[in-house]
Amino acid sequence: MKNYLIFFVLFIAALSNAQTNQLDLSYYLPADVSYNSKIPTPKSIIGHEVGEWHVTHDKLVNYMQVLANISDRITIENRGATVEGRPLILLTITSPKNHQNLENIRLKHLSITEANSSSLDLSSMPLVVNQGFSIHGNEPSGSNAALAVAYYLAAAEGEKIDELLNNTIILFDPSFNPDGLQRFSSWVNMHKSQNINPDPNDREYAEAWPGARTNHYWFDMNRDWLPSQLPESRARIKTYHQWYPNILTDHHEMGTNSTFFFQPGIPSRTHPLTPKKNQKLTEEIAQFHANALDKIGSLYFSKENFDDFYYGKGSTFPDIQGSIGILFEQASSRGHAQESDNGLLTFPFTIKNQFVTALSTLEAGVKLRVKLLNYQREFFQDARKEAKATAIVFGDEKDAAKAYHLAEILQQHQVKIHEIKNDFTQNGKNYKKGYSYILPKNQKQSRLIEAIFEKRTTFQDSLFYDISAWSFPLAFNLDYNENAPLSQLGSEITEVKPRIIPNFPTSNYAYLMEWHEYYSPKALNQILEAGIAAKVSLKQFSMDGVDYDYGTILIPVQNQKMPAQELAQLLNKIAQEATINITPVTTGLTKGIDLGSGNFKTIKKPKVALLVGDGITSLNAGEIWHLFDQRFAMKITKLDLRGFGRKNLSTYTHLILPESRGNFLDKNDAEKIKNWIKSGGILVGYKNAANWANTNEIIKLKLDEKKDTARNISFENRMDYRGAKGIGGAIFEAKLDRSHPVNFGIKNSTMPLFKDTNLFMKADAQSYNNPILFTDKPLLSGYVSKDNLKEIAKSSAFKSANFGSGKVLLFSENTNFRAFWFGTNKLLMNAVFFGEFM
Predict the structure, then answer these.
(1) Angle formed by the axes of helices 57-70 and 178-190, to 10°?
(2) Dmax over Cα atoms in the chain, in whole Å?
(3) Which of 137, 197, 529, 742 could staple 212 via S-S, CB 3.0–4.6 A?
(4) What is the arithmetic mean of pLDDT over 678-682?
């Protein structure tokens, strides 16, 4: 038996070496086509065959630039840069004739989406196909296949390629995620052996934390098509709306032991706003993929596992805009070759499947061209007919920045936005000019508007591949009304901009800064970084006809390290950069607590560390890092768990523990954190950090663990049953105690919270210990089982407790979800700046 195993391993290694050593471009390319010898192959430029090594992003870009310089079928543009400075390139591939008339073709294509498009002749109009690869950096077969696809489109000759290029405009994005692709290629290439070892236990197939799926800040960019918060997403969205492609493809990878997936997904999990004809066309296109994969003997499946519900994914985003989004999922070799349930899975084989389906997409586009163009026209015509003659207004009379950022997203998606004509009140909410926006529903993007603003609580299915709710006004915690009067439409805004803050005069007494504005934490941090003393009000007060809320910041003029005039200049600069109001005052006498009251507490400058590394959920950690670094320009130390016992914690005021998995800290490390808290540190924990704190006896919590017994559930349906019991992502209403420091700066007495965990913290018997409490009927939008809904009702979303001289502050929910949950970001900032008062 031992000799047999040795022989088997040697045989597999020899086979994998044979597949890569004998590899050349003909492995991928159709044999029935001739190729222009003047077009350089990928190997001649990047130095290795496609699939021999994992292409690095710089080599990928270099090859695309060479093709664009040589081929009259290709142009290239740089649409910006990633956080790490890598170019976000796009190739436009079509016939030379089309290139000469490209702008006219684009404008004519856009006219399909406009009113009065019925008379347009579509018979000779080219189809627009947007092909994108490897939005997850560690799913690299897509971007590596892009090398071969680009070569084919540049070099292939004959009637078939001429027909394709004459009838198609191809928007070709070879790497949706340059930073992630570079990170992954470095990992697998540095671990590649000369004799490729397909053993799944080899280090090549086990990336180091945080992995390369994500971008620089560890975001899953295939969830950002709708929120569009990341630079890579914004470049893609701009391209999309410049063209409104008819097909958009998104090439991914999945588990090594799977095969190949193409859409449609599970029919019952398609979003109701997506027209049924969309799915029928997707099925027609799917037949082309099946035919292509049949020819090369590849196994595949469809209508399983994946869905078309959340419009923030690349394959679903087009579905609400008259296009067909297509997801491809290839079993991943996660390196150069790996053993799988289906035999040896080599990297070249994964590339070949992506190559074949990239071409089958284009073939389908040519064959179904007029049908797809007609569908796009009908989509926007029907949308206009359905649209109501009303408007949506949204805003926050105390916070202009949140409303601005939602308006910014809408404008990225070509939604027409207007100023409100006058200040007005509707359903008890005040909408103020400069702090609110209004948009008519009857416009081209009416269906997208509905998708962005909708609240949905009934569903055909109880399972979701991703979240079931994302209502943007709830995510931003804004006041809004979907039946605002059209009479309040003011001037259309061609470009939304942050408000301009005028200079304020010098005070010789003090300055007041309300805490409502989104960027108040950024301003306070700059104030403390400059060595300026500041205090926070624990109570409300009034002066000079202005009501000041809990959390108002006081900056006295006396006893500061700079003279009054210099202080005024600095505060003006800070206010303008953070787009917040700072008010000079001349007296300490108020209606309520005076400015010298003990209810104004001195704020200490925080020094914050974030636990990262093995066992920590990188997505959750990345959201926090991004919030500090990008939104509030605050330094945060990413404290790796490697060698944690040797790290000195005494210099940090706060330690943030994101969501985690398994036993991420040993007993000694846990004891070290406990001693740090006892010495005055503040631990801020998210989600299952509550379990960790409870287990380590830092806080006493009553956690509900729902026990469930399956009844009348078959073996076949057991996984669906269990899946429906989870909370995959829905929105719930919480009641706030606005006097508690964790809620400072929140205007309303209730708040929408995003929840994607089955953690339920029981409310404390003392009401003042429940500052964030889910309401009796908390569901606002999304799917949740009846049993889980009962558990959520009246449960607590925040707990605080003293531990020695320090504190532990626990959030059961993610307050920083995917960078677009602006409405709850203030909660973490309150924990950082005001934690010692909780």
Answers:
(1) 120
(2) 91
(3) 137
(4) 98
